[in-house]
Amino acid sequence: MRILRILLEKEFRQIFRDPAILRIIFMMPTVQLLVMPLAADYEVKNVKICVVDYDHSPYSRKLINKITASGYFTLVDYSDSYEEALSYVEHDEADLVLQVPHAFEKDLVRDNETTLFMSLNAINGVKANLGGAYLQSIITDFNNDARLDWLQAPRFNSTPVISIVPANWFNPLMNYQIFMVPGILVILVTLVGAFLSALNIVKEKEIGTIEQINVTPIRKYQFILGKLIPFWILGLIILTIGLLISRIVYGVVPIGSLGTLYFFAAVYLLAVLGLGLLVSTLANTQQQAMLLSFFMMMIFIMLGGLYTSIDSMPDWVKTFTLINPVAYFIEVTRMVILKGSSLEDIRSHLIIVFGFGVVLNSLAIWNYKKRN
Amino acid sequence: MNVIEVNKLSKHFGKFKAVDEISFAVSRGEIFGFLGANGAGKTTAMRMLCGLSLPTFGQAQVAGFDLYKNAEEIKRNIGYMSQKFSLYDDLNIRENIRFYGGIYGLTDSEIKAKTGTMLKNLKLEKEGNKLVKSLPLGWKQKLSFSVAMLHDPQIVFLDEPTGGVDPITRREFWTMIYEASDKGTTVFVTTHYMDEAEYCHRVSIMVDGKIDALGTPLELKNKFSSSTMGDVFIKLARKAKRGDD
Amino acid sequence: MKQFLFFVRKEFLHLWRDKRTLFILFGMPIIQIFIFGFALTNEVKDSRIAILDEAKDEASEAIIHQLAASQYFDIEKTISEQQLVRAFREGKIKLAVVFPQKLKEQLQHTNAASVQLIADATDPNVANTLVNYASAIILDYQKQSKGFEPIPYTIKTEMRMLYNPQMKGSYNFVPGVMAMVLMLVCAMMTSISIVREKEMGTMEIILVSPMVPLLVMVAKMVPYFILSSVNIASILLLSVFVLDVPINGSLTLLVAECLLFTLTVLALGLLISSVSGSQQVAMLISLMGLFLPTVMFSGFMFPVENMPTALQVISNIVPAKWFYYIVKNVMIKGLGFQSIWKETLILVSMMIFLMAVSIKNFKTRLE
Questions:
Q1: Fold (topology level) of B2-238
Q2: How far is Cα C172 from Cα C318, in angstroms, rounded to an integer?
Q3: What is the DSSP string of A118-155?
Q4: Do chains A and C touch by CB distance (3+ pairs < 8 Å)?
Q5: Is 0.90 surpassed by the pTM of this model?
């Protein structure tokens, strides 16, 4: 145990003397947490709309007023023709075009029915979907108002109506930042755990000090623990810094218990450290280590449900999710911070991630030979 | 008393025989020079004896322990100084001593005492807190040797320890080696400098993976009718088929 | 000229012999395309939902049947009120549909009933979308149950999706992946390659040789330039043949713009190398100063128009942003040069500026 303590002393000294690492540890969470949630606002708002009004009737104008008054849309232009409106879309100056046909009001009254045409820039599917849905609901609203104008109340009420009462739990203000912040915390912790630890070991390989260690009576497990423990601690420190920043800047206060969060993070770190360790046994240069861990992390993070929902992924990808530790951590962080999930709730996640830790570390230790 | 006994030790990489059935013995307190041209296999051989590389076959005992079965015990009893000197650049002198001392099981008070002695002997008392990377090469090298000797090992392995330093520092270094040998430490050293070969008690010369000569410098000079070890070396190395590593 | 080619050859050998790195640099874009193309989608489907059915009558069963049949939903289970919160907390469901008691009776007698949709709003957009889909299904039932009597004075809407009728996420992602890959290979790898030479000390040997130092640096860029071209080609091929993303506009124009962007990014790599003392620093700067902003501000991951003004201004100095716009317009919208000449000009001036600065910086560092 004394040997371990001596090893740890050396590791910590080296880490804190390395300006690059210090910069990463303190600057990175700050920058990422400050900028990313601001940048990652997926809310669909300020949808730019161009209206082509062939009717120019009081009713068409009423409709357009209702649209602009809704707050979701910004009227870019009141175009004379579809072609003109389309050119706005081509230049990304408008997201959608609404065409009001000639004789809109007249057709509605005379034929009981008329049609509006929407053209949406669907390159961004979410925007198109939601933008279309918002516009649709405004039109439906407008439609109901119009009916009330022309019909007497009782006759209208003979139609059975199911009213839908939506309730938004856990994030009633529908704030996207709250959604992003836990995810970013996961990235930070994973970066330190996998990335930095891998780089660290490979650096020793490259310089040659690893040989010196191999010649001493330091046992394999002592060396590995000596490498893992500092980054384990660093990972938890970064989590703390991240949580503090989230609290101060975004007012995100974990609803669930901090203890649960830290406990899971501690177990999760074991797993990603194992991953970093494994990478370090596979890479010979710092460049390789960096590329490899970056590459793996990117895949894990992308497929971890950070930006897009895992549910929507095809089945074969979902299977991969089962062995993606990042996915578990992302889910747990969101669950604990935003929904107040307890230790009981995340029990299965905990066990699985612990299993990862065991497997990855065993693989890495087996791979690391003092003698070749 | 032999501290190193080697019998037909070999290391093959596929069909390539880097070390081809070498046999020799080194007795306690000897300064044993392990010479050879580049590519002859001496670094590979030394790495096997230090436990860094597993032999393909053959027997060896280092410090009384079997190379295959008791590698970890061997490591406790040897010191090693590699070509790259491997002190930690970003730690200072004291910290490096503390680290290696602790690794080899010295107590805190022992470490403290030895640090004081070492700094005094090397005349580095005032530089104790300087980072190793700021030291000139000669000092680093002497420091590395001292650190390798920190735990009073039975044998110390030196891999080309005097590469790139001026003659005066080399002389001082060899003084340190003699002192160690006088105290009973066996010194196993590889080198390219043929004048250093003359300083050794006994010398072996490896060519193409085999030991082509083994004996005291005097014996070898007589055997090969040469006036210097340099000549002996050239005569043997000329026959070599293998070039650089 | 011949000397230059010798240097280029040496640089190629460096890259070629490092098989691990090569593998990653080749494989990464390909894997990214597959991931982005197939796995990542902003589409919402197969979302796990739960039903709290207190009615258990014809009406609720009909609606549940419709929900189950829809591709958007995956009915996880039917639960009770006590299990509701737990189900959300355990992350098992994203939406709960609550049917009140005696739904059908209420509808028939009072012409009014309410169904509650409880959404997990941690991801607001998903919540919104799910609520929309569920509402549509419920309203559909409402229409059907009345026997298709048309409600008087109806405004119908017809929606047309432009450029991406199948609403594929890949249309959005592919141009972004191209920018990311170029950034990574050209800027980061080039800068690391140059700095590594510095670190190992072989730089001095090169500087002592009769080669003009600048040409040495150019020689370093050549393998990565070629690698990026191969990457772009593979990305385009995969996108067209595997992901069904079309190249609607002129291929020549597209390739020309890609080359332009590649040169810009190479200049960035040179600049980074001239201010980095070690490989670690070069990596750090490339990642934090280049890669991250590219991902954030180019517009393919996060909508730039939603960002606070300050960030939007910053996004204008990220070359990837302009590149992304250009590629989208040419590749997906199928537009010609007239629609992108402004952006191209910006990119060209960025490239010239960066080259000038990095060359100047490089020369001063040497002295």
A1: Rossmann fold (3.40.50)
A2: 18
A3: EEEETTSHHHHHHHHHHHHHHHHHHHHHHHHHHS-HHH
A4: yes
A5: no
Distance, in angstroms, between A70 CA and closest chain C CA? 17
Interface residue A80 vs chain B (CB under 8 A): no
B and C interact (at least 3 Cβ pairs within 8 A): no
- B104-139 in b/e form (b: 16+ CB < 10 A) is bebeeeebeebbeebbeebebeebeeebbeebeebb
Note whether B touches A: 3 CB pairs or more under 8 A.
yes
Closest to B185 measured CA to CA, from B150, B219, B160: B150
Q: What is the pLDDT along chain C (367 residues), one digit of tens a residue?
A: 777 888 888 888 888 888 888 888 888 888 888 877 777 766 777 888 888 888 888 888 888 888 888 888 888 877 888 888 888 877 788 888 888 888 888 777 776 778 888 888 878 778 888 888 888 888 777 777 665 556 666 777 777 887 877 777 777 778 888 888 888 778 888 888 888 877 777 777 777 777 777 777 788 888 888 888 888 888 888 888 888 888 888 888 888 999 899 989 888 888 888 888 777 778 878 877 777 778 778 877 777 777 888 888 888 888 888 898 888 888 888 888 888 888 899 999 998 998 888 878 777 666 5
CB pairs under 8 A between A and B: 72
As given in the structure block, the two tokens for residue C35 are 């991931």
Question: Among residues 321-360 of chain A, which lie with CB inside 8 Å of chain C?
Answer: 331, 334-335, 338-342, 345-346
Which residue carries 């980061």 as its tokens?
A: C188
Locate CATH 3.40.1710.10 in chain A: 47-157
Mutate to test the interface with A, among B11, B62, B78, B103 (most CBs of A within 10 A): B103
**Which among A208, A211, A218 has the least Cβ separation from residue B103?**
A218
Q: Where are the domains of chain B?
A: 2-238
Asked if A132 reaches chain C (Cβ–Cβ under 8 Å), the answer is yes
Q: Verify whether the Cβ–Cβ distance A217 to B82 is below 8 Å.
A: no
A89 contacts C162? CB cut-off 8 A: yes
Looking at chain B, which subunits does it touch, using at least 3 CB pairs closer than 8 Å as the criterion?
A
Residues of A in contact with B77 (CB under 8 A): none
Domains and CATH numbers, chain C: 2-40+168-366 (no CATH), 47-145 (3.40.1710.10)
* Residue C102, SS3 per DSSP: coil
Interfacial A residues in 210-269 facing C (CB < 8 Å): none
* Residue B18: DSSP 8-state: E
Contact C180, A135 (CB under 8 A): no
CATH for A47-157?
Answer: 3.40.1710.10
